[in-house]
């Protein structure tokens, strides 16, 4: 396993060095969003966009969050 893989942010399109493993990223997503996101359909986003998306997600009404979870989360 390497910790110097690059990824392109799905939100802003910038390329960054990935500093965490897929497992850590998935665990973080689960902790922050309360949903399981499969690795193969997960959108990879940078820290800045992640912070913004977390704020957006937390501001959603519960009904909207539940709808998005049914439809596969925020990775449309
Ligand atoms: Zn970004």
Describe the structure.
The chain has about 80 residues and is mainly alpha-helical. About 45% of the residues lie in helices and about 10% in strands. The protein has helices at about 20-35, 45-60, 60-70; strands at about 5-10, 15. The protein has a two-stranded antiparallel sheet. The longest helix has 13 residues, at about 45-60. About 5% of the residues are buried. The mean pLDDT is about 75. Zinc ion binds near residues 9, 45, 48 and 49.
The strands making up the biggest β-sheet line up spatially as 1-2
List how many beta strands DSSP finds.
Answer: 2
Helix and strand succession? EEHHH
Shape: globular
Gyration radius, in Å = 13 Å
> How many angstroms separate the termini?
29 Å
Main sheet properties? 2 strands, antiparallel
The share of residues in helices is: 40-55%
Number of domain units = 1
Q: How many separate helices?
A: 3
């Amino acid at each position: 396993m390497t910790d110097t893989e690059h990824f392109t942010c799905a939100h802003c399109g910038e390329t960054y060095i990935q500093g965490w493993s897929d497992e850590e990223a998935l665990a973080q997503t689960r902790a922050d969003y309360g949903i399981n996101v499969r690795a193969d359909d997960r959108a990879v986003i940078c820290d800045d966009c992640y912070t913004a998306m977390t704020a957006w997600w937390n501001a959603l009404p519960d009904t909207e969050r539940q709808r998005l979870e049914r439809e596969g989360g925020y990775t449309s």
